[in-house]
UniProtKB/TrEMBL annotation:
Keyword Cell inner membrane attributed: no
Any GO MF annotation of the entry: translation elongation factor activity
Keywords of the record: Cell membrane, Elongation factor, GTP-binding, Hydrolase, Membrane, Nucleotide-binding, Protein biosynthesis
Domain Tr-type G as annotated: residue spans: 4-185
GO CC annotations on file: plasma membrane
Intracellular or extracellular location(s): Cell membrane
Gene name, Swiss-Prot/TrEMBL: lepA
This protein's name: Elongation factor 4
Any GO BP: positive regulation of translation
Main location: membrane
EC number(s) given by UniProt: 3.6.5.n1
CDD domains, alphabetized: EF4_II, EF4_III, LepA, lepA_C
Function statement: Required for accurate and efficient protein synthesis under certain stress conditions. May act as a fidelity factor of the translation reaction, by catalyzing a one-codon backward translocation of tRNAs on improperly translocated ribosomes. Back-translocation proceeds from a post-translocation (POST) complex to a pre-translocation (PRE) complex, thus giving elongation factor G a second chance to translocate the tRNAs correctly. Binds to ribosomes in a GTP-dependent manner.
Amino acid sequence: TDPARIRNFCIIAHIDHGKSTLADRMLGITGIVADRDMRAQYLDRMDIERERGITIKSQAVRMPWQVDGETFALNMIDTPGHVDFSYEVSRSLAACEGAILLVDAAQGIEAQTLANLYLALENDLEIIPVLNKIDLPAADPEKYAREIAQLIGGDPDDVLRVSGKTGMGVEDLLDRVVQRVPAPVGVADAPARAMIFDSVYDSYRGVVTYVRMVDGKLDPRERIQMMSTKATHEILEIGVSSPEPKPTKGLGVGEVGYLITGVKDVRQSKVGDTVTNSAKPASDALPGYTDPLPMVFSGIYPIDGSDYPVLREALDKLKLSDAALQYEPETSVALGFGFRCGFLGLLHLEIITERLRREFDLDLITTAPSVPYEVTTEDRKTVTVTNPSEYPTGAKIHEVLEPIVSASILAPKDYVGAIMELCQSRRGTMKSMDYLGEDRVELKYTLPLGEIVFDFFDQLKSKTQGYASLDYEPAGEAPGDLVKVDILLQGEAVDAFSAIVHKDKAYAYGTMMAQRLRELIPRQQFEVPIQAAIGARIIARESIRAMRKDVLAKCYGGDITRKRKLLEKQKEGKKRMKMVGRVEVPQEAFIAALSGD
Ligand code: GTP
């Protein structure tokens, strides 16, 4: 295809502002999906995505569209909307020349609208502002068109009004994409350079790599090279999605499509990497490749220890389609054998645990999420601690650095007080407060990531009746007054309950866990002290009183079958007991204490 007839664009929007519905509508209007084949959210392929209405992996689709008798190829690149996947968002944006800025006409601009808009502007994309859901009775397009115009400049009348649901205005929007989005430019006879903006594992075809061609050409059966690793592969199939995969004779400048090389692991085809010809490689890779770093860590354990091999296999499988997932084996006194896993963020953690439960039928327990801390001891040795049990104990601690994020919170002005209170209690520092339009305020804070992973979002939602939206990005590290709190049963630390917390919150954490365990652990033959400690210093204490009664005492010796039943029951119970020192603890107690039930 002649690059002059190609338009590459994406839709950026806050969650629930209707991106998928609009994308589906475009597939219908351009005729590439017949109405009878239309199912809700055609592009969101993963079941979990469809159920939760969130987009996790991006997809690209090519649609024909005629303007003034000329046919154009519109490549729509779907982007994930959530902060956890901002690296994937930025790669998808880098594959486009334009972006539709989609805003719900009954809600106005939200935190992810802004975050994605800034990313789009950084990538020099042409922005097409659009108000969606104008069919809603609550829609106030006049008000929000002013809000958008104030934000990006321009005339409020220039903001298109559409409804993805009814299809109103969508044809005009496609025309505008052709008129406003610049055609791609590239050097046709240079060595090939194609950016990988997505890489998806398919159990039948192996890894499907989605690319945006910048320079040159890629042909079927050609050998290609990944520029970050120098690994070479043969292209078994090359084509475009419209939206089902359709093999082509190759891809040229500005085109968007997919490659299949037979590799089985997405790590061999990484998002952000540059693909080039192996015979005639380009000298410079396209800019912007980084390995996504996990920021949230948690231990994942099977509730039934015999499921451990199944869990290992399941993680191996998920890793094939998710280059950002990390894991290594870990053992815990309380929970047995499991894995310490690293995630991009909380949503990523939730998605993975949900998939493990659902697709692999596993019963799991996860330990409280933790962030990576840089701990330097008095002798100037620094370790990265992603698990409280790795916290250095021998030497004195010189300094602890914790990851910091810069957060943007948008909410109606009535909630400013509640938000400030919450951020303060989470050690936040306010950076700015701005009015966007008549009653919406943007608050900027820097906050420790460790405070955000601990139910911050739920608190924010409940304190603002669901009206606030949040977005954040990493902003380096800062020293924090952090300590490790251990929970001891009869003097022995129970690893799964150790936590790294701020000094001011250590006491609250210690008492809470000690009380929970006192309620959950059954009495033993002897008294069991439960203590919370920072190093050797005890900060809280509870105790479980000794038990006297013999289980068989109530049987009076008469009924032998009853006696046997009781003994058997006791034995069954024993199987799920964990020993901490001399203390016998049913695993359920640990699980309940961790899940806070
Ligand atoms: P993410 O994939 O999570 O980013 O969500 P999304 O932006 O793709 O939103 P989605 O298309 O799933 O729509 C969210 C909700 O808004 C759904 O309940 C849709 O039915 C509804 N919706 C989408 N477009 C319209 C519209 O034009 N009018 C009305 N009334 N409802 C709409």
